[in-house]
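Researcher: Please generate the 3D structure of the following complex. Treat every line as part of one assembly.
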Amino acid sequence: MAPRPARAAALVVLLVLLAAGCRERPVADGPVTLVFKHAKILGPADPVPGLLRRFEAEHPGVRVQSEALTWSSDEQHQFYVINLEGGSPPFDVMMLDVIWVPEFARAGWILDLTPFVPAAERDAHFASAIEPAVQAGRLWALPWFMNVGLLYYRTDLLAKYGLAPPRTYDELIRQVRLIQAGERDPRLDGYLWQGKQYEGGMVNVLEALWANGTRLLDETGRPFPEPERARESLAFLRGLIESGVSPGWVTAADEELSRRPFGDGRAIFLRSWPYALDLFELPDSRVRGRVGVAPLPGLPHGTVGAASTGGAHLAVSARSRHPALAVALVRFLTGEAAQRAMTEGAALRPSRPALYADPGLVARDPTLPALLPLIRAGHPRPVTPYYLMLSTTLQPEFSAVLVGRKSPARAIRDGAAQVEHLQQALAR
Amino acid sequence: MSDRRLGWLLLAPALLLLGGLTVYPAIWVIWLSLQYRIPVFSISRWAGLAHYAFLAVDTRFWSAAGVTAAFAVASVALECGLGLGMALGLRGQRHGRRAAVALLLLAWALPSVVTAKMFEWLYHPAGGLVNFLLGGRPVNWLGDPALALPSLIAADVWRTTPFVALLCYARLLTIPAELYEAAEVDGAAGVQAFARITWPLVRPILLVALLFRTLDALRAFDLMFVLTGGGPAGTTETLTVYAYRALFQTLQVGFGSAIGVVVFALVMVVAVAYLRLIHRQEASA
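Model: Done. Output below.
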């Protein structure tokens, strides 16, 4: 009977096994090989192999081995944690979700890039992309590409009713009512967003907090510094569902689940990331040529366009045996030429504002200049090494509000208590 | 060398392998669960039973324990009931048995993450097949706290009932037809034949299926992880999902291990209970 129940521990012992696992013994001689770990780059034409060959041509004797990570962000994080904590990383350069950078820096898993990156190079990126890469005054990663929350709207429907994209959520709600009353189509939903209990749901709540002029943590790390405003933000999100402006199922929606109905022409507004735009403009898309993007609307106490930024950064493993070369690869891949290639080939948004006015890129993607002010107005998620703990602790609380299981005030109280408990545990 | 010693010697490689692969990591996890260990914050010190004390009052833990128990009881009961029914139906079938068995295997053979993704679209409130078949009402299967867990149980039942059905079916095929003929001659048919012949003969194998399914259900992870992420409002967060979040998402190695140890203990208790039941049945048979 031993093997069967013991298999129960398989999940939890994975970390342990790998920690105890073998250490790789690299070959000392011969050409230098840099291992580059990154998620598969989607889009029309993956530019990464071409870029790596160019880097190899510029650095004779260096070979870059590109290794793809799994697609899911959770699994990528798990992969890194197991390998970096286990102390046997056979890789030099790694692609990180922006929210992991402070954590990895704090853990000592990535190299301090400060001495290698001149100030001008750092300043060539969006401030909201650099800010999360700085911990304790040091720079730990360089931004590779950029994401920002956007409001998608149906240009045809808004034009039909003589409406401009909403600047406030009150306006958005009025527009939804007006259009739904006029269209008399029960299958046409109002405003779609992501309310599932996951990181994306967290992002939507953070945006509601910022839209109302408040935030999750203040400078000292205290949660919900203005509880009344936070309460309003959560009540607003729940109100969208209760009033029918958003369908009830947004409480289970992630990016794809909410993108599809909008792409099928079954919603007026959608909150999503820039990737959706490319899909809406595909030749067989039902909403091709009928989709516009605008900044996220504001709530009474806040500003317009308080969207979350996201994206990927590149960092160097602290255990890399060729740190100088690895840093060179990071600087090359985050450089202007490489980001231009990434923007062209992979339909990703660059982290360098200068490229948003690049004539060649704008000719291919006319939406780029419109994105620039939206990204500039964006906010990074709380920049702290314990962001993931914070997020997974609070997600059930926020989800409970969205499905009507808890009042906003109660969820904020319970959430704050849990965050404080967490902070105490970490401070000891 | 005595036979006894030779026996141990021959067993040694297997025992060492099992020990190395199961006992050693299990002990290590228990050891980890007695520490505060959060690598990111360079926290590594003795905690004693502090994690277990916290679990005793942790509402999220108790909620996860309740979800795990509800999921296990409901899904296993349905799977065994339906599986046995399917097996009986299959035996009564004259034609197309092979095709039916192949179809059954299909559901069982799909990787569980694929099954989960498939159900994600079946349950989609706006464009999903389930709502379409129900007449287009936008039922919020995965986003409604009252429906999310039942929806996951239904997906699990769809996926694993074939396993139970095939086990039972295999057993049914070995029951000689003469038994039923004799029963019929004696005037016992239908329900009586089932209660006196089929049930006692199928019961042992059903118990084995029950054991396997319960242990799997107590460690349920992939369906909830893919479909709901434990939501809404934590109503589908099982113990293993909670352990995963603590261990791999938030790197609380000590605390996560403590949850893992609890799951392990739970599974052991259930496994031992089942095995006793099975042994007793074998002894009485």
